[in-house]
Amino acid sequence: MNAIALAAIGLFVFILGYRFYSKFVAEKIFRLDPNYVTPSHKYKDGVDFVPTNKFVLWGHHFTSVAGAAPILGPAIAVYWGWLPAVLWVVLGTVFAAGVHDFGTLVLSVRNKGQSVGTLAHRLIGQRGKVLFLFIILILVLMVNAVFAWVIANLFISFPASVLPVFIQIPLAVWIGHAVYKRNKKMLVPSLIALAVMYIAAVVSSQVSFLQIDLVRYMGGEDGAGLFGLGAISTAFFIWIIILMIYVYIASTLPVWQLLQPRDFINSHQLIVGLAILYLGLLFTNPTITAPISNPDADVSWFPLLFITIACGAISGFHGLVSSGTSSKQLDKETDARFVGYLGAVGEGVLALISIIAVITFFPSREEFFATYSSFQASSGAGLGAFIRGASQLAEGLLIPGAVASTIVSIIVVSFAATTLDTSVRLMRYIIAELGSEYNIPSLEKKHVATTLAVVSSAALVLIPEGPNGFGSGGYLLWPLFGTSNQLLAGISLLLISIWLRKLGRNYAITLIPMIFLMFMTLWAMFQQVFLQWAWYAESPNTLLFVFGAIIFVFTLWIILTAIQALMGQKDPGFSEMDID
């Protein structure tokens, strides 16, 4: 199939989904009320609860959920051929991700802006809440480790991207001050900041001394580094420490001071990046060289595909963002459709171009198979294939290759960083909730909870184990990232289903994707984590097996508890409003 036609079909389905299906869900199922007083107004505190323009909030929400995962997952999944990946991204976005992200946002808004973990108490009981919070805690810990791993490695591989990424931080602080202290509009300053970033990208890609290359400073790839770790490992260690210091500060500042303005800049960056890639696709009209399917794959796509592509089709992490930060900033309840459903569609658009960039990059099918020789090989090659493929599309707009690679890497790093500090903020919320649950007041303190989140994330990503030695801890639990992410999405859909049933509404729109997702994920988890990666591997991964067993048992426990609640009687007196 022609690559342009493939993109056009996917985009058309996304438009139909937002125009018709999300409208049906908003009006007939969730019944959004423009006069409802949202938590951002009711509990306004200027830190977490901040009424926000829907376009600004969409930027925060979109860039928080659109990290590296909607790029990495699809870039790996094309190993099985482009058709299964495209179908799951497009249909999963319209019928699963959109409803999930939209639904968790509305559910939280109707319940004081509480997270889905806390809401589990009201919907399935105290035990279910605690189990769910622990699953969420494990997931965000893995998100922190994996995304920190990705960012540090991209800084090492593309040192020209470091300066533009760090320039964004003071620009975002300046914008936040101008908007919330001096009542300025955010759009123009954000566009100026984006222009400054891209000018820095062009200059740093051409001027070597502006490229912050820690490996070079340590004597090159063969350098001894610090304490005999080697130049690359030392550079990785330094970047992780810098990132952890940054996310500590970013996740404790008021959302208006850094998080919102930086995310608004990144929302423009994503739009510009998507425009460059899709326009590049039009101008280059590349040939799809990857196969439509791969019958010789060493690992079956069924059911593994549905956990390999999480973000970009459906992701439980999105529900944490919807109910953890976005619900506390929603100005009007009717904005939830724009922020939640359209945010999921935006990520689907990113996942679609990620697939197309990879499947059109290779000159021939033989070269594709040389890189994607096995599923394990695709896991290591996916992100690099995307960056090179996306750069090739950008070159169609006469952008020099070095500049194109820098811009693409900046986009990936920016989104990964946005997800990282949002995830650390969410982890702080969860630790505080657990502290309240078990009557440990010290854990409810912001800086204590944040310190625990940052230290545990750094410890995991720096575990000196795995196939790549030091600093491979970010991938140590990678097989569990997709499974726990999808299980979290399934549980969130189950909670929304229970809520809708108690209100006497049609809950099939959430129940059907929940059943599909739970079945595929539990099957894939048992098959891959317990059998292949943990138990029958030549070197069994004990940590992977233990974490997997805990999540698996907790999930089954929650499902059984939730089914009892779901099969209970409808409750006409059940309030859909928040309860004081």
UniProtKB/TrEMBL annotation:
Q: Which domain of life is it from?
A: Bacteria
Q: How does it sit in the membrane?
A: Multi-pass membrane protein
List localization entries.
Answer: Cell membrane
Q: Where is the CstA N-terminal domain?
A: 2-363, 378-524
Ranges that cross the membrane: 6-21, 62-82, 88-109, 130-152, 158-179, 191-212, 224-249, 270-288, 300-321, 341-362, 397-420, 476-500, 507-526, 546-567
Does Cell membrane show up as a keyword for this record? yes
Q: Sorted alphabetically, which keywords does the UniProt record give?
A: Cell membrane, Membrane, Transmembrane, Transmembrane helix
Q: Which PANTHER family match?
A: INNER MEMBRANE PEPTIDE TRANSPORTER, PEPTIDE TRANSPORTER CSTA
Q: Which organism is it from?
A: Planococcus chinensis
Q: What is this protein called?
A: Carbon starvation protein A
Family label: Belongs to the peptide transporter carbon starvation (CstA) (TC 2.A.114) family.
